[in-house]
Design brief:
The chain has helices at about 1-40, 40-45, 60-105, 110-120, 125-135, 145-165, 170-180, 185-195, 195-210, 215-220, 245-275. The protein is mostly helical. It is flat and about 75 Å long.
Length: about 280
């Protein structure tokens, strides 16, 4: 028995070692490649290799990208932060309440809205009609219009997560609260919403990373220089005839830091929120 237990420990250790090694190969090498090239000069970065930078000019590269075009990177961080925070706040409030209603009620209307949510996951957005709608309501080329677009695109996935998680909350809680005379809004915000913390953390991290890293939608719906987002700043460092790859890599390093920190600190919450309610949902 002791021998078998020893073999199991060795096997478990081997599996974990292999997993760590593969993670370092798949994720560590790309990050090392970007970071190393961000510390090279223009000629060295253009060679696209993994050699250590010589000379080491990381401080000059990062100072250059921050001051480029009147601190465009800082303005891009500011605009992306506003869009992300506003979109997440609206998304959580709308999807949490809608997910609760769709899970607790049944009928033709509920089936119709569930179908709309699934359709939103499958049907790609249309650019020209979206621009026409944004112009019609007067929010085209504005941060508010960008928030509207990001929320609309993120609702289907977030709604399905909340609806599945609400299925794990016993209905007896609802009945007991209503018998005691608790109002619906008070019941939701004081009793149900605190129970949604795992899935809320998942929605915050996944949606925030998706919105923060969005490049295509700001390109179409936010085409003004003063409304530049952080992803759009990469246009500053490469072009048709010349490219400053060292500055581009340095810009990528700065851009990737916030999503990387989110995944590091909230990794367990993401997994728990994704699998919660998977059976009952």
């Amino acid at each position: 028995m002791k021998l078998k237990a020893g073999k199991r420990k060795v096997l478990q250790f081997t599996k974990e070692a292999v997993a760590v090694f593969l993670s370092l190969v798949l994720f560590g090498i790309p990050y090392y490649y970007v970071i190393v090239n961000s510390a090279k000069n223009k000629a060295g970065a253009a060679q696209m290799n993994l050699n250590f930078p010589s000379p080491f000019v990381a401080q000059d590269n990062y100072a250059t990208i921050i001051s480029e075009q009147n601190n465009m990177v800082i303005r891009g961080f500011f605009n992306s932060t506003i869009i992300t925070i506003a979109s997440i706040a609206i998304l959580i409030l709308a999807c949490a309440m809608a997910g609760y209603v769709l899970q607790r009620r049944s009928g033709k209307a509920t089936s119709f809205f569930n179908f709309l949510a699934l359709a939103g996951l499958m049907i790609p957005p249309a650019i020209v009609p979206t621009i026409w709608v944004l112009k019609g309501i007067g929010v085209y080329r504005s941060l508010l219009g960008m928030v509207v677009v990001e929320v609309a695109l993120s609702i289907p996935f977030s709604l399905m997560l909340y609806r599945s998680f609400v299925a794990t909350i016993p209905r007896e809680i609802d009945e007991a609260a209503f018998v005691d005379g608790c109002g619906r809004l008070r019941f939701f915000f004081q009793m149900v919403f605190p129970l949604l913390k795992p899935v809320t953390a998942t929605v915050i991290v996944l949606s925030a990373v998706n919105i923060y890293n969005d490049f295509v939608n700001p390109l179409y719906f936010l085409p003004r220089a003063e409304n530049v987002t952080i992803q759009m700043t990469m246009y500053n460092f490469f072009g048709r005839y010349a490219s400053s790859w060292n500055l581009l890599f340095a810009n990528v390093v700065l851009i990737s830091l916030p999503p990387l920190l989110l995944f590091i600190f909230f990794n367990k919450r993401i997994v728990s929120g994704m699998v919660a309610g998977a059976v009952k949902g």
